[in-house]
Amino acid sequence: MDDKDRQIIAALQANGRLTNQELSEQVNLSPSPCLRRLRMLEAAGVIRGYTAVIDEEAYGLPVTALVRIRLQKHDDATVAAFEAAIADMDAVLDCYVMTGSDDYLLRVLVASLKDYEDFVRSKLHPIAGIAAIDTSFAYGIVKRSTVFPQGKRSG
Fold this sequence. Notes:
Helix content: 25-40%
Strand content: 15-25%
CATH superfamily of the largest domain: Lrp/AsnC effector binding domain/regulation of amino acid metabolism (RAM) domain
Order of helices and strands: HHHHEHEEHE
Oligomer: single chain
Number of domains: 2
Largest sheet: 4 strands, antiparallel
CATH class of the largest domain: Alpha Beta
Strand order of the largest sheet: 2-3-1-4
CATH architecture of the largest domain: 2-Layer Sandwich
Structural class: alpha+beta
CATH topology of the largest domain: Alpha-Beta Plaits
Number of helices: 6
């Protein structure tokens, strides 16, 4: 991947609805080479898909919970069961494997604090092997970006 590919990616991250003509103009390529590069990025799995960015509150899910999970043990069966259960939960938008004292960090969207309580009681509590659940609620967003940083990259 070269700088031109990164320009294509940055332009699409900022606006995934660009036509190939608009994209080629933004990255200073003619349309055919631009489309060829785009198709190669898609085929290589660098571009995994296209989506719309939706306002959570306008959609009706104004409560963002950041949930830290610690497992009782870390054997293959416990980890696999936990990860499979989380993968099936629509309210969990992101699940990160973490270093430090917590094993996982979840980003959960719900409509209300009552819905969060129901989520914990009906979805998280039944998962065997959870030692601790610690939740923080986001009450504002300072920065959110869909565009990767353009600084120096290793590799």
